[in-house]
Amino acid sequence: MPEGHSVHRIARQFDRNFVRKRVGASSPQGRFADGAALLDGRTVTSVRAVGKQMFVEFDDDLWLRVHLGMYGAWDFAGDVLVDATIASANGRMGQTNQRGTVVDDRVMDAAGENSLSSIGAPRRARVHVRMSEQTTGLGGDDDAWPPPVVGQVRLRLLTDEVCADLRGPTACQLQTPDEVAATIAKLGPDPLVDDPAEAEERFVSVVRRKPTAIGLLLMDQSVVSGIGNVYRAEMLFRARQNPHTPGRDVPEDVVRELWQDWVRLLAIGVETGQMMTMDDLSPEQWRAAMAHRDDRHWVYHRAGLPCRVCGTTVVVEEAAGRKLYWCPRCQA
DNA sequence: TCGAGATGATGAG
DNA sequence: TCATCCTCTCGAT
């Protein structure tokens, strides 16, 4: 279920915890046994995220491509080095290189009871694993290392300190550098990867050529990378744009506005780990939004509820097999 | 205990 | 357009 922001955050986690480390690789579930055997004992040399895909480079030009799809998630456990921006976004930890934990994409109190860190599809922390002495003082004989395997783990990557478990990905495969390049070449621009000005022009020119509805184009990863169903609905509402308008009929300034909004929302998403799409929330509203997933959005997941702006009932319809939420009045 | 549903993508027809 | 794959959570029973 993760959209682009999650994948960039996962890449950061990998960058901090796995790059330049020799890893043990296994496939407890068995479905990636051959691939894991090839990765086992190699050193991670780099990580990059493009849209919803993540590429991990190992020595000898071997790459791992992972796409989480709707259900996939990475669970980090152990003595996890947390990105400073991830930590400070939550306000509980502020130093760089701090070790702590992330649960359901939120930084938990370092002395929290669970040290499972999950980014991707929402997950509840399920197991207790080793925690570092400096964060808990609880390190003892009870802490199993490596952590026990729970559920269907496609791929486990393990260093002396950190364990990353991959579950339910749509894609998990090894690639050559040429294959990685070919995969990336098929993807539309990603604001965090491509040159900003060029990326905007590329997006605008593609959208304004297409007869396809703008609501579908935003979900097309060859048009723009990283947008999923939540951001799609929210961006169209923020632009007061009817999702059914063909791309070529959407005024150029609106198309540019959509791109610039995506740049903003992606940056917020990567920093906070939340798909926060409502501007100017009061501290009280912010807390409510954090507590209740459905309070975070203008229209997403609000079918049958009154539009926050005009009071008209928000509608939901199927568009290319996905649910599309929008306000028929604001987005007329 | 069961089944629906979920922030995706792909391949066949 | 439809079926299929992937895994887990939550609400209904």
From TrEMBL:
SUPFAM superfamilies: Glucocorticoid receptor-like (DNA-binding domain), N-terminal domain of MutM-like DNA repair proteins, S13-like H2TH domain
CDD domains: AcNei1_N (cd08970)
Known cofactor(s): Zn(2+)
Keyword Lyase carried by entry: yes
InterPro entries given in the database record: FPG_cat, FPG_N, H2TH_FPG, Ribosomal_uS13-like_H2TH, Znf_DNA_glyclase/AP_lyase, Znf_FPG/IleRS
Superkingdom of origin organism: Bacteria
Name of the protein: DNA-(apurinic or apyrimidinic site) lyase
UniProt organism field: Microbacterium koreense
